[in-house]
Specification:
single chain, six-stranded parallel beta sheet, two-stranded antiparallel sheet, globular
């Protein structure tokens, strides 16, 4: 017998407009011209070295991947992320579920970041209508359309709405695709169930995003650059909303992981930058690199000349590139993300820096601005 579960349909979901927020994107975004504040001499040298490797990677048409935690978005760094994409310096961006949410909330209402302590005490943390309803619906529609996690949300922001199909069309998909494309048939069933539950009208559902110029995932969608989302079940506030659908979320997240892995497979002489994502980034990278090596080795090749720069606020005096993995009695051993990346071959460096300083510095070094 299945374990009893909490019924999200009983939650008192409040209006997002009534939520107090701590960050306002128009006021708090960081312009690309702002000068970085606190980079060490070592940091400046690593910035120059990384920029050289990025230029080489772009000349050789290899991957330049930028993976970051949610604070990069919450710190107002979307203008720099957008500039790096528009000017052709990065080929793939990826973040966790919270990064997707902050980017969407900024585009939708111009503000984000609630008070966690206060709202958990009130039984209201993450239980907001528009964030939960719209993002989850975008993922359910995206699963039906065969899209990825970030792509689904980026498309909704860019088009300022979602296309809701006729129920009859979905039922036809189920009957005609069940044998040859059971995933599409299942996604059609899931979407049909949501349409019925929420009485959604077929056609284009308008969802205005008046601040979409600040959305990195919307701009990535428009440019055709992968912006992938890598969530973990239960980690994000969208799981608090009754619209949340585990099967749809799994489909779009898997699509994004496989897209991420494909671009990892093009990292020979490429660059991978990991900013402040201490868990998600190393975990998905090691699996993606292993699969990539497996496929490339079947053709007689191997990924050996990839360059990895890991950026975080935690201090480490250990030279990972020169000395390899530290002994277990050294505190640096417990910088999990460094330890993982140091095992990934290639050339790996660690930089202690604020994500704002790093992104501004690498963009200004690449462009000479």
């Amino acid at each position: 017998m299945p374990y009893p579960k909490l019924d999200r349909d009983l939650l008192a979901v409040k209006k997002l407009a009534d939520r107090k927020n701590k960050v306002y994107i128009e006021k708090d975004h960081i312009p690309v011209t702002q000068k970085p504040d606190h980079l060490s001499e070592l940091g400046e040298n690593l910035i120059r070295k990384t920029a050289e490797r990025i230029r080489l990677a772009r000349r050789e048409e290899r991957s330049v991947m930028l993976t970051f935690g949610a604070h990069t978005i919450k710190n107002g760094m979307s203008p720099t992320l957008i500039a790096l994409m528009e000017e052709g310096w990065v080929t793939h961006l990826s973040t966790n579920g919270a990064g997707i949410i902050h980017d969407w909330e900024f585009a939708f209402q111009g503000k984000s970041s609630e008070d966690v302590r206060e709202n958990v005490e009130l039984g209201q943390f993450g239980i907001w209508d528009h964030t939960g309803f719209n993002i989850n619906l975008a993922l359910i529609v995206g699963a039906y359309e065969g899209l990825g996690y970030g792509e689904s949300v980026g498309k909704m922001i860019s088009l300022e709405g979602l296309q809701i199909p006729e129920i009859s069309v979905l039922y036809d998909e189920v009957t005609t695709k069940m044998k040859n494309d059971p995933d599409l048939a299942a996604a059609a069933i899931n979407l049909a169930g949501v349409i019925q539950k929420y009485d959604l009208k077929p056609g284009f559902m308008s969802i205005p995003h008046p601040f979409k110029k600040y959305s990195a995932q919307a701009r990535a969608y428009e440019l055709g650059i992968p912006f992938t989302g890598h969530p973990m079940i239960g980690h994000d506030i969208i799981y608090n909303h009754p619209m949340n659908h585990g099967a749809a979320l799994g489909r779009v997240a898997l699509n994004d992981f496989l897209c991420f892995a494909r671009n990892v497979s093009k990292l020979e002489y490429g660059v991978y930058m990991s900013i402040g994502s201490a868990v998600m980034s190393p975990m998905i990278f090691e699996k993606a690199l292993s699969m990539s090596q497996n496929l490339i080795m079947q053709k007689g090749g191997h990924i050996d000349n990839h360059f990895m720069l890991i950026v975080d606020l935690a201090k480490s005096d250990w030279d990972w590139q020169k000395n390899g993995e530290p002994p277990m009695d050294n505190p640096a051993y417990y910088l999990r993300y460094c330890k993982t990346f140091s095992r990934m071959g290639g050339e790996m460096h660690y930089l202690t820096a604020d994500n704002r300083d790093f992104l501004l510095a690498i963009y200004q070094e690449l462009t000479g601005k």
